[in-house]
Amino acid sequence: MTCTGRYSAGALHRAGFGYDRMRASNRDRRGDSADISEHRRAGRQIRKIAFAGIIGSLYAALTIALGFIGYGPLQFRIAEALCILPFFMPVSVWGLLAGCIAANLLSPYPLDVVVGSFATLLAALCTMWIGRSRGGGGGVARKILACAPPVLFNAVFIGALIAYYTAGADEPGVYLSLFAINALQVGCGEAVVMYAIGLPLMVYLPKTRVLEIIGGSRS
Fold first, then answer.
1. Cβ atoms of residues 81 and 194 within 8 Å
2. What does the mean pLDDT of the chain come to?
3. Under DSSP, is residue 169 helix (H, G, I), strand (E, B) or coil?
4. How confident is the model at residue 137 (pLDDT cuts 50, 70, 90)?
């Protein structure tokens, strides 16, 4: 009876020890999994920040390289096609802002670095909001809508900026006339870029692995 009791106690002790080791092993595995997940999240964040830097550099380089067609009343700033990216990648908003500031440092209108960059920021935030929203229709319809903010904001802000440098603010009648003309011209140029280049890019990007690699939305 005593031997059986001792054997049972020893068996129970070994079983308990094995159970404790199994629990410790499970905790270690969970800890390793958490560490791996944390590293993956950190890796995605680094890729997103790097992506924003690349977008800013590309925006500035394209605008500066193409020179005069990126500035003035009738402008076709090809880099504006990149303004579709916040629809998929919110972090690209800051890359676009940095790139626009850099490009506008060479603008013939000194205040463009403030006014034009602010217009780009507002447009990018609106495009980002449309990308996150699920109430604006699906598919191509929502992408068409997402191309509109850069057209509208640039028409208003850049149209007003160019009118100010052309007519000044002393003659309201002349200023408003020039504003209407410049806003229409800038808006038309922006619409050509956004809908001839930006919209096809929006449709094409989700079909590639670019957004998956960077960590953006494929909506």
1. yes
2. 83
3. coil
4. very low
Cα 192 from Cα 28, distance rounded (Å): 57
* φ, ψ (nearest 5 deg) of residue 147: -80, -15
Cα separation, 46 vs 51, whole angstroms: 8
- Find the helix or strand (DSSP H, E) in which 44 lies: helix 2-66
Write down the residue that tokens 């500066």 correspond to.
64
Q: Could you tell me the two tokens for 217?
A: 């939305």
Which two three-digit tokens encode residue 156? 């208003």
Domains and CATH numbers, the chain: 47-214 (1.10.1760)
DSSP per-residue codes, 97-132: HHHHHHHHTT-SSTTHHHHHHHHHHHHHHHHHHHHH
Fill in the amino acid letter for 165.
Y
> Which tens digits make up the pLDDT trace of 156-204?
999 999 999 988 767 778 899 999 999 999 999 999 999 999 999 999 8
* Cβ pair 84, 202 in contact under 8 A: yes
